[in-house]
Write a structure and sequence with these properties.
Distance between the termini: 26 Å
Oligomer: single chain
Mean pLDDT: 87
Number of domains: 1
Helix content: under 10%
Strand content: 35-45%
Low-confidence stretches: 1-37
Strand order of the largest sheet: 1-26-25-24-23
Number of strands: 29
Largest sheet: 5 strands, mixed
CATH architecture: 7 Propeller
Structural class: mainly beta
Number of helices: 2
Shape: globular
CATH class: Mainly Beta
Length: 368
């Protein structure tokens, strides 16, 4: 987070931030990965350097909204390029702790959203100026993610607050699902707008507790939301959300303490073919819009946690080890590409893919 960036998501497009990914993607004790990295394919010809970064920071993400216009976000600033990442101009500088950037997402060259320690903001001039992004979650609850498919239609995800039930008070509620100030519990919630955010309609997730951390839509009907240990999908624009069925054939159910892996990344190729990657390397795949799903085998295959597929079989991904991987069988087997490590991976539909590290910005040949 994005999920599938594909029209471009930053942190939600590609590793949602590498440091977080590395922490989340540590192998769960209930789901050990014993298989070593598969054989390595040569990187030469597949990855081409475009430019050096204008600065380095604790994390850095690039988002292309078309093949020429792109944005580079870091904790301390935002840059823009109009020549495919060759040259950069700073459009927003962070001046204090509360302005620290944690997430950036642009719909196009003008409209963008930014999360900081001080809340969410919106820009309508390509990141030059930012104003508070007011939503139903601005004054109460938790606002975690945003996704627009046009300037009118979009969704926000997060959590609402409610008083804990007597049963919850007796049994206890996980610390991360309690609000420190009010003592209320977090319940997952999504809102939809069809007028650019002037009005919002609530969409409830069928879960008693939780916090929607990532949300993605491929069109006005088909979307997916990640809520802690669970994932939910919709085929009617969010009017109805259903839990993604997880076969859990590789989860080590018999071990003490139960399974601890969590959904980390979803990729929506179309309304039917989609993938769900877990922070411990498991991957689920559906070919019927999550009416049914299968867990990719073998269980001990090392798989990336950030995915993109350019066809039903061919895909690329970035692992928690920061290596680049590719697959030619729909995600069952992954081969490591080269020996260089990268911090993030993002895509513009099937038009291009880009990698970022402290060494610079790189273009990935996804057809090679």
């Amino acid at each position: 987070m994005r999920f599938h960036t594909l029209k471009g998501i930053f942190a939600f497009t590609a590793m949602s931030f590498v440091q977080a990914a590395l922490m989340l993607a540590c192998v769960s004790s209930s789901h050990p990965r014993e298989g070593g990295p598969p054989s390595v394919r040569q990187e030469s010809g597949r990855v081409t350097k475009i430019s050096n970064l204008p600065a380095t920071d604790s994390w850095h993400r690039v988002q292309f909204v078309n093949l020429n216009d792109c944005f580079l976000s870091m904790a301390k600033g935002l840059w823009r390029s109009i020549d495919g990442g060759k040259n950069w101009e700073m459009v927003h500088r962070v001046t204090d702790y509360w302005e620290t950037i944690t997430k950036v997402y642009f719909l196009d060259t003008k409209f963008g959203w930014m999360e900081t320690h001080n809340g969410w903001f919106k820009s309508e001039d390509g990141g030059q100026t930012w104003t508070p992004f007011e939503t139903p979650l601005s004054s109460s609850g938790s606002f975690r993610d945003v996704k627009f498919i046009s300037r009118d239609t979009g969704w926000i995800g997060g959590a609402a607050l409610r008083v804990p039930s007597p049963k919850e008070l007796k049994l206890g509620v996980p610390r991360h699902l309690l609000d420190d100030i009010t003592g209320k519990v977090l319940t997952p919630i999504i809102y939809r707008t069809d007028d650019g955010g002037k009005t919002w309609r609530v969409q409830n997730i069928p879960a008693n507790l939780g916090d929607v951390k990532d949300i993605d839509f491929i069109d006005s009907d088909h979307g997916i939301a990640l809520d802690g240990p669970e994932a939910f999908h919709t085929r009617d624009g969010g009017k109805t959300w259903l839990k993604v069925n997880d076969p859990q054939t590789c989860d080590g159910n018999g071990e003490e303490g139960g399974y601890e892996g969590k959904p980390y990344w979803a990729y929506l190729f179309d309304s039917s073919s989609q993938w769900l990657a877990f922070d411990d390397g498991r991957i689920l795949r559906t070919t019927d819009g999550w009416r049914t799903s299968v867990e990719l085998q073998p269980c001990d295959q090392n798989r990336p946690t950030v995915l993109h597929f350019s066809s039903q079989n061919r895909g690329h991904g970035l692992g928690s080890d920061k290596f680049l991987y590719e697959t030619s069988d729909g995600g069952k087997q992954w081969i490591r590409v080269g020996t260089d490590k990268y911090d993030s991976l993002s895509f513009l539909d099937n038009q291009g893919a880009w990698l970022v590290s402290e060494r610079g910005l790189f273009r990935l040949n996804i057809g090679g």
